[in-house]
Amino acid sequence: xxxxxxxxxxxxxxxxxxxxxxxxxxxxxxxxxxxxxxxxxxxxxxxxxxxxxxxxxxxxxxxxxxxxxxxxxxxxxxxxxxxxxxxxxxxxxxxxxxxxxxxxxxxxxxxxxxxxxxxxxxxxxxxxxxxxxxxxxxxxxxxxxxxxxxxxxxxxxxxxxxxxxxxxxxxxxxxxxxxxxxxxxxxxxxxxxxxxxxxxxxxxxxxxxxxxxxxxxxxxxxxxxxxxxxxxxxxxxxxxxxxxxxxxxxxxxxxxxxxxxxxxxxxxxxxxxxxxxxxxxxxxxxxxxxxxxxxxxxxxxxxxxxxxxxxxxxxxxxxxxxxxxxxxxxxxxxxxxxxxxxxxxxxxxxxxxxxxx
Amino acid sequence: xxxxxxxxxxxxxxxxxxxxxxxxxxxxxxxxxxxxxxxxxxxxxxxxxxxxxxxxxxxxxxxxxxxxxxxxxxxxxxxxxxxxxxxxxxxxxxxxxxxxxxxxxxxxxxxxxxxxxxxxxxxxxxxxxxxxxxxxxxxxxxxxxxxxxxxxxxxxxxxxxxxxxxxxxxxxxxxxxxxxxxxxxxxxxxxxxxxxxxxxxxxxxxxxxxxxxxxxxxxxxxxxxxxxxxxxxxxxxxxxxxxxxxxxxxxxxxxxxxxxxxxxxxxxxxxxxxxxxxxxxxxx
Amino acid sequence: xxxxxxxxxxxxxxxxxxxxxxxxxxxxxxxxxxxxxxxxxxxxxxxxxxxxxxxxxxxxxxxxxxxxxxxxxxxxxxxxxxxxxxxxxxxxxxxxxxxxxxxxxxxxxxxxxxxxxxxxxxxxxxxxxxxxxxxxxxxxxxxxxxxxxxxxxxxxxxxxxxxxxxxxxxxxxxxxxxxxxxxxxxxxxxxxxxxxxxxxxxxxxxxxxxxxxxxxxxxxxxxxxxxxxxxxxxxxxxxxxxxxxxxxxxxxxxxxxxxxxxxxxxxxxxxxxxxxxxxxxxxxxxxxxxxxx
Lengths: 357, 284, 293
Hints:
- The complex is a heterotrimer.
- Chain A is mainly alpha-helical.
- Chain A folds into two domains: 10-304, ABC transporter involved in vitamin B12 uptake, BtuC (Orthogonal Bundle); 311-357.
- Chain A has helices at residues 10-33, 39-65, 72-93, 97-123, 128-147, 191-209, 212-222, 224-229, 234-257, 270-283, 288-304, 312-328, 330-356, and strands at residues 149-154, 157-162, 173-177.
- In chain A, helix 2 crosses helix 10 (270-283).
- Chain A is globular, with a radius of gyration of 23 Å.
- In chain B, strands 8-9-10-5-11-12 form a six-stranded mixed beta sheet, sandwiched between helices. In chain B, strands 4-3-6-7 form a four-stranded antiparallel beta sheet, with helices on one face. In chain B, strands 1-2 form a two-stranded antiparallel sheet.
- In chain B, helix 7 (206-223) links the parallel strand 9 (194-198) and strand 10 (226-230).
- In chain B, helix 3 packs parallel to helix 6 (176-189), helix 5 packs across helix 6 (176-189) and helix 10 packs across helix 11 (276-283).
- By secondary structure, chain B is α/β, with parallel strands linked by helices.
- Chain B is built from eleven helices and twelve strands.
- Chain B has helices at 64-71, 94-100, 117-124, 133-137, 141-158, 176-189, 206-223, 234-240, 258-263, 265-272, 276-283, and strands at 6-8, 14-16, 26-35, 38-48, 53-57, 79-84, 87-88, 102-104, 194-198, 226-230, 243-248, 251-256.
- The relative contact order of chain B is 0.17.
- The longest helix of chain B has 18 residues, at 141-158.
- Chain C is mainly α.
- Chain C has one domain (2-279): ABC transporter involved in vitamin B12 uptake, BtuC (Orthogonal Bundle), CATH 1.10.3470.
- In chain C, a hairpin with a 4-residue loop joins strand 2 and strand 3.
- The chains are: A mainly alpha, B alpha/beta, C mainly alpha.
- The A-C interface holds A 62, 68, 122, 125-127, 129-130, 132-134, 136-138, 140-141, 144-145, 147-148, 163, 225, 270, 274, 277-278, 281-282, 285, 310-311, 313-314, 316-318, 320-321, 324-325, 327-332 and C 28, 34, 82, 85-86, 88-90, 92-93, 95-97, 99-101, 103-104, 107-108, 110-111, 225, 228-229, 232, 236, 261, 263-264, 266-267, 270-271, 273-274, 277-278, 281-283, 291, 293.
C-alpha cells in the first residue's frame, strides 16, 4: 500500500505561496527603508511584479490548462496600450493618480480578456503544437496591429486610425503613434500596486483551480474524452481559463506600461512571450511559487551579470541550457543529487565532530 | 433479487416485465457507421427497458465498443435513429448526451489519473452540484454549500464499492480493479438514466467479479436505471443480464434471454466456434 | 506583368522558406521537437559563407560548401550536447533548451561578428533575366533559388523513400521503440536528420542573404519563425507539406506586401495560417491522428 500517494492539500500550497509573496515584499520594504537596495534593482521592482503576474497567468494556461501558448506577450501588449489610453483619458478628466492606475489596470484586464476570449474560440479547437503555433501567430498579429495603430485624444474625444498618422485633430495629444508607440507617459505604477496585483491574481488562480470549473479544467487535461463523457462542456471551461489568463496578462501589461515614459509595441514580441514561458517551465508547470521565484531570479540575472557586460546574454543562454539539462537529464540529475547529499553529509559529520571535541 | 419472467419482444430487445408498460429508455433503429468502406456497425436495432440490465456480447472486433461510441457520439453515426427516453439524440454532443442521461465507462480505463479519487467523483458531480465560476473564485456562500454537498455525495457514492477510505488517493495509483470501480462511481455521479459499462470485469479476479455482479444489480435496484454492458466474462453476462444481444461483424446475430442465447446454434457457431457448445456450458 | 513578377518573387521567397521549413519538419517528424535554434543555424551559415568569400576570397561555391560543412557539424554538435541528453524529458523542457540554444547562437554571433549589419553580396551575381522586351525582369538569385529548392525536394524525397537511411527515418518517426527493436540505430538516425536539416539551413542562409543582403546576428530569427509556420501550414512532419507550405507562405507574403499593406504583411501571413489551421487542424497535408476510445 506504500505506492498510494497522499496529496498535500491545495490550501497549504496556497497559504505558503501567499506567505512567500508577502514575506518577500516585507523584506524588500525593509531593505528599501534602510537604503540597501541598489538603484538598479529598484528600477526593476515594478517590471518584476509585471513579469510575476505574466508568469502566473501563463502558468494557468500552460501548467493548469495544459496548452502551450507562445503569444502571451500579445495580451500584455493589448493591456499595455488600452491601459495607457485609459490613463490619458482619465488625466483629461482630472482623476487622481491612484484612481487612474486602478481604472487603467482594470481596462487592461477587460481588453486583454476580450481579446483572449475572441482568440480562444479558434485557438482552443486545435491541439498541441498546432495550438502553440496559432498562439504565436496571434501574438505576431497583435504586434503588427499595435505597431500600426494611431490613437489621439482631444476635447472631442478619442481619435483612432490604422496605418496612417492622420488623426484629424486640431489640438489635443497623440497617445499612441504607430511604431513610435507611447511617449511622455505618466509613470503611475508603484511597487505596492504591483504587489497587490500579484496577490489578487494568485487569489483568483488558486480559487479557480480549487473549484468546480478548475476541476473540469484539470480533468480535461488528464483525459479529454472522459471529461466530456461526464457531461462537461470542455470548450467552455478551457475558454474560461484562457480568458482569465489573458485578462491577467492584460493587467500585467498595464502595470508594465505605466512604469515607463515610453512604450513601443515591439517590446511585446515573441521574445517576451518566450521569456515568460521560460519562467513558467523553470518554475515548474502548475507551480505558482516556482513561477514567482523564476520570474524574480531571471529578471534580475541579466542585471546581476552586468559585470560581465558583453557576455551577459551569452551567460544567460548557457545558464538556461544548463538548468534544463541538470533538471531534466536523468544522469545529470543523479550526479547533482549525489553531490548535494555528499555536501549534506559533510555538514552532518562536522556537526558530529564538534560535539565530540 | 428474484428473477423476473422475461417478456420477449419480437425483433427487439428483451424488456423485463416491470418495464413493459413504460416507454423504453433506449430505442435504436437501423443504426450504422462506416469507417472508410467498412461497415463497422450495420442495421443495429435494440430496445432497452427502463430498468433492464442488457448485455452486448460478441467476439473481439465485432463492433461492441463502437456501439457505445455511437451512443455517446464519440463517433457520429452514418445512419439510423437513436431515441433516448423517446427523444431523438441526433446532433447532440457527448457532454449533452450525458446531461440527457447517458453515462459510460471505458474499455481502456479513462480516469483523471492525476486527480484524487474524491475529485474524480466530484468531476462527475459537475452538473449536479452547480455554482458559477465567479461564485467559485469569489468563494460566495453557494460555493461552500455546493462543495459540502459534493463532498457528501461523493463519499456516499464511493461507499457503494466501499471506497471511502481511498478518497484522498491519487486515482492513477489505484489497483486495476479499484480503477474500474471508480470509473463506475464517476459515471453514476452524473445521475444517469442509462449506464453503459464497457468490460467492467476485465482484469478482475473471480471473487472481484462476483462482487461486481452483485454491485451492478444493487446499482440498478437502488438507482432504478437501465444498465447496458459489454463483457467477455460469460459468468457475469449470463448471471445478471436480462436481455442479451450478440454482435458479430457489426451485425446483431441473435437477441434473447440468457437461456435463449446459450441455446442458439447461430451464436454458438459464430461466437464460440463449432465445438463451442461445450465451452459455453462450461463457462456459463 | 507585375502580377507575374510578384508571383515569381513570391515563389522564390517561398522556396527559401521551404528549404528552412524542411529542417524544422524533418526534425519534428523524427525527434518530435521544435528546434527553435534552426533559424540561427541559417544565420551562422550565411556568416560562414560571407567571411569565406569576402575575407578569404574563396569562390562563392566553395563558400557555400564550407557553410554547409560548418552548419552540418554545428547541427550535429547541438543535437549531441543539448538535445540528446533530453531524449526522455518532457517536450517543454526540450523546447526551452532549444530556445536557450537559439539565444546562445545569436549572442555568440554578436560577440564574434558584432551586431553591425554586413552587406552580403549575392553568390549568384546581380544580373537579371529580361523577358517580354524587358517588361519582366527576374533576377538570377530568384531563378537559382527556385531551381535549388526543387532539386532539394526531389533529392530529399528520394532519400526518404529509397535509401536505407530514409527507411530508418520513416521508421523512427512512426515509432522509435519499435524501430529500435528492429535494429535501427535511433541516435544515428536522429543525428543524420539534424545533419541534413542544418546543411539545408546553410543553403537557405546563403540564398536568403543573396536576395536580402543585410546580415546580422538576428537575421535568422524571423525567417525561422515564418518557416516554422510554413511547416505547420503544410502539415508538420510532412516533406511535401513543408514545400507546399513554404511556397504558399512566400507567395502570400509578397502579394500582401504588393497589394494590401507592407506594414501588415506579416499579420496577413499569420492570419492566413490561422484560417487554414482552423479549417484543417493538422495543416494542408498533415494527416489526422485518431484517438482510440
